[in-house]
Amino acid sequence: MAQAQKALAREVHNPAVSVDWERVAYLLHVSRQMDEVEETRLVPEKQVLYQFSARGHDLAQILLGSQLTHRHDAVCGYYRSRPALLAIGVPLEEALAGPLARDGGYSSGRDIGVVFNYPNPNGPSALPMCGGVGTQYTPSTGWAQAIEYRRTVLGETDYEGAIAVALGGDGSVASNGFWSALTIATTQKLPVLFYIEDNGFGISVRSHVQTPGGNIAANLASFGGLKILEGDGTDPEEAARLTEEAVRFVREERAPLLLRLRVPRLCGHSAQDTQGYKSEAEIAAEKARDPLPRLQNFLVPAVFTADAWDAIRQRAADDVAAALERALARPQPDPSTLTRHVFSEAASHGVQAVQTKGGLAAEGHVLPKGSATPRPSGPRINMAAAIRRTLEHELAVNPRMVLFGEDVGPKGGVHSVSQGLQARFGEARVFDTSLSEEGIIGRAVGMALAGLMPVPEIQFRKYADPAVEQLNDCGTIRWRTRNRFAAPMVVRMPGGFFKCGDPWHSQTNEVQFVHAIGWHVAVPSNAEDAVGLLRAALRGNDPVIFFEHRAMLDHGWARRPYPGDDYVLPFGKARTVREGRDITVVTWGAMVERCEQAADLAAKESGRSVEVIDLRTLSPWDSEAVLESVRRTHRCLVVHEDNGTAGFGAEILAVVGRECFLDLDAPLERLTMPDIPSPHNPILLEAAVPSPERIAARIDEMVRF
């Protein structure tokens, strides 16, 4: 097609919109060919096990992807977002190999084929998608906040003009993540485009059940700080104009915008969905809105001849067929690699295997080397002061570190741990957030993916529950993207009893995060260990739950001299608090002090020699230290504050029972809280939490067995 004819067509249709219509037409045909071959061949052959067609959504997405040209742009989509990914440059073979679950590419068969990721080094990236509805929104705002941080605080001029795009369907606007992201983007004035494809259905649920009146744009008309556009996503001219206007606004104004485009879903929710909930008239009406023939009518003959259109369609078919053959020729994934990339592999494989994108390591950011040797100086300080001093030093040496959460700013945290940090480092680096744990952790995910070291605080352990989906998804990023992405962060999480208890502020349940794939878990019992473990986490390359026990933050027993600004305590190294011959007691957190007291009681009252081991970290945990001790003492008691059933003590004793069965002189035992929430009354609390007296009595019973 002659360039003059193309230019004339653009001028006739809309002189303000610049679109490469030939590329749009080609990619639309590519997307349709991919959907068709999956639906008619690969799904029936059971070579593709999950299939989500994008027919009807495809034109609008391609127009969106074509506008994402900045190398620091990022889009986070969902299971129907393949056309947008094709438009930002995902190779055709990769787009087909993913659904086939073949080796290589963005997952290598670990995740379902429609959950994409694309760490593009020279252009816009696709952040790791998740299977959960609405999970894309808060990480997108985190990416946008990281853009602004790197642009304004770090002075990285190449981030000027970059934006984040959260791409979702109308069903997802009912999710917690959507509303949390709106709050973050508008209160912080972040460059985020909320791109909502409204097809009228969330699987089978109609839009009016998701949103009053079925129109999220109308409902948000008075939402502060949010510009709104809406229109027909099947009309090539209107969709192109609105998309270009939306992207230009977000780039230039550095502010959020919501664009709602009406599109038909010319298919079921997935290949298994028969759409029995739609009438024949509804299906016919949707088919009449198919954007493919509308694009043809728009371009032929104004831009292309009919022969040129057919040539584009044939080229797309040929390219898809060739890409499919290459994808089918790929081998199946190697089962021997299945357990790789749960965590960073620098230590376990001897060579640095750094993720392509995310965290400090991916960009070669180097922090000072630490020392495993403490150099204590000064008076004994409490754990809160020790954590604060560590955070202060690491903020000073790492300009990419940011600290945030509810009340962490001027108030200094409800436990006073972050007191004074905002005054020293400013609101851009230490800041308060809205009251949304989903938003706190989801935002941290996006920041980490964008190369920062986020340190979010969850005010109390129980309050993490609304963020569990983001926490779980974050931990699996490295594994499910096959080390293409990772989101290292340190989540500070106070919990446990303090003077009294209650079901809302005193929960521990640390085992939940040990069971969450991809998370390291630290539970320090004293100020020195807190410093070393926190610094190791802040300089590491994996996400970490850093559990701060409320009872120990200002406890006299937990006070220690500050061990130095370079003290780093490796994870997975237990400490033998007290050596003994008769029994091994394994514990962590606030129970370490009580087990020491119990050991004193057992020695005084019964002459027992008790070895007490403080694990310090639960993921990983030092099984070697425990097993070596049990082989000498021939008895093992685990004491923890968490509930007994399915608590982490069960895991420890399972390993001890397997490895030390022939060494044991008594049954393995646990002493824990009963299976109840933490009670409020101090008398009830003491009856629930293992006491030194009860621990000592159990020690005596086991030694006398």
How does this structure look, described?
Strands 2-1-3-4-8-7 form a six-stranded parallel sheet, sandwiched between helices. It starts with a helix and ends with a helix. 39% of the residues lie in helices and 14% in strands. It folds into three domains: 328 residues, Rossmann fold; 202 residues, Thiamin diphosphate (ThDP)-binding fold, Pyr/PP domains (Rossmann fold), CATH 3.40.50.970; 130 residues, 3-Layer(aba) Sandwich (Rossmann fold), CATH 3.40.50. The N terminus is likely disordered. It contains 24 helices and 22 strands. With 705 residues, it is of the alpha/beta class. Helix 6 packs parallel to helix 7 and helix 21 packs across helix 22.
In short:
The protein has 705 residues and is of the alpha/beta class.
Task: Break the fold down into its secondary structure elements and pairings.
Layout: H1 3-13, H2 21-42, H3 58-67, E1 74-76, H4 82-88, H5 92-100, E2 125-126, H6 137-153, E3 164-169, H7 176-188, E4 192-198, E5 201-202, E6 205-206, H8 207-210, H9 216-219, E7 227-232, H10 236-253, E8 257-262, H11 280-287, H12 291-299, H13 306-329, E9 377-381, H14 383-397, E10 401-405, H15 421-425, E11 430-432, H16 437-449, E12 453-457, H17 468-480, E13 490-495, H18 511-515, E14 520-522, H19 527-538, E15 544-549, E16 560-562, E17 575-578, E18 583-587, H20 591-606, E19 610-614, E20 617-619, H21 623-633, E21 636-643, H22 648-659, E22 669-673, H23 682-688, H24 692-704
Parallel strand pairs: 1-2, 1-3, 3-4, 4-8, 7-8, 10-11, 10-12, 13-15, 14-15, 18-19, 18-21, 21-22
Antiparallel strand pairs: 5-6, 9-16, 14-20, 17-19
Helix pairs in contact: 2-3, 2-4, 2-12, 2-13, 3-4, 3-10, 5-13, 6-7, 6-16, 7-16, 14-19, 16-17, 20-24, 21-22
